[in-house]
Design goal:
single chain; eight-stranded antiparallel barrel; 3 helices
């Protein structure tokens, strides 16, 4: 018997505001000959996700604690790189009970695997001006190489805030690729498979309970016979 996972695919949306990106401001930004290092600002960024639950409706949530660094070279994108870390326990779906289940061993095991990380290995420019970023995404104890689309939103200097630049990416992953499975479902599936592969059979010897009778006779003194009745 095959049992389907309830909602294996997760749509991730990252809108990152990067602070201290002064070199990306102004008309000369595109001709800059040096990569610019920017830190992710949690005040103006979001890391959200959407799942299609039970094949019926969508549920949304976000991570509230994360950090990252982007080294961006607008004149030579191949010299750019990204490092990003999310604290799994900061997951928020606006439902405390559900958040507890998602943080548990049944799903993300936040206590054992407290972070999710992404480290880029390659950045390439696309014809439409966006970026294609390839790197290693690690969730739980599984690392997968993925490629995601990234759009540069621009840069600006904001009074009383500072210098900011924006990037955005939207992509989909299958959580089961990373060992994020509903363990209770797996336990049910394993139990069902075991029952299917090893059904219980009651065997009887000739003349009713022959096998049981022979075992009892062997244990009794000579001249005694076991009395056994099938029910």
């Amino acid at each position: 018997m095959k049992m389907r996972q309830a909602f294996p695919r997760i749509l991730l949306v990252l809108t990152l505001a990067l602070a201290t990106c002064a070199a990306l401001l102004g008309a000369g930004a595109a001709s800059s000959s040096h990569p610019v290092t920017c830190e992710v600002s949690k005040n103006y960024s979001t890391v959200s996700f959407t799942v299609h639950k039970w094949l019926v409706f969508k549920e949304e949530g976000m991570f509230r604690d994360y950090a990252g660094q982007v080294v961006y070279d607008p004149s030579e994108p191949a010299r750019s790189r990204v490092e990003f870390t999310v604290q799994v326990a900061s997951m928020d779906t606006r439902n405390g009970g559900r958040d507890g289940v998602l943080r548990s061993e049944d799903f993300f095991a936040a206590q054992k695997y407290p972070t999710m990380t992404f480290t880029s290995s390659k950045v390439a420019a696309r014809p439409d001006g966006s970026l294609e970023v390839t790197g290693d995404l690690r969730i739980r104890d599984v690392t997968e190489r993925i490629t995601i689309p990234v759009r540069y939103l621009g840069a600006n200097s904001i009074t009383n805030v500072g210098q900011l630049a924006g990037f955005e990416t939207t992509f989909t992953i299958d959580r089961t690729d990373f060992g994020v499975i509903w363990m209770e479902m797996e336990r049910r599936k394993t139990h069902a498979q075991q029952r299917s592969e090893h059904p219980h059979h009651h065997r009887r010897g000739k003349g009713g309970g022959g096998e049981m009778t022979r075992r009892l006779d062997a244990a009794l003194p000579r001249g005694h016979k076991a009395q056994y009745r099938n029910r």
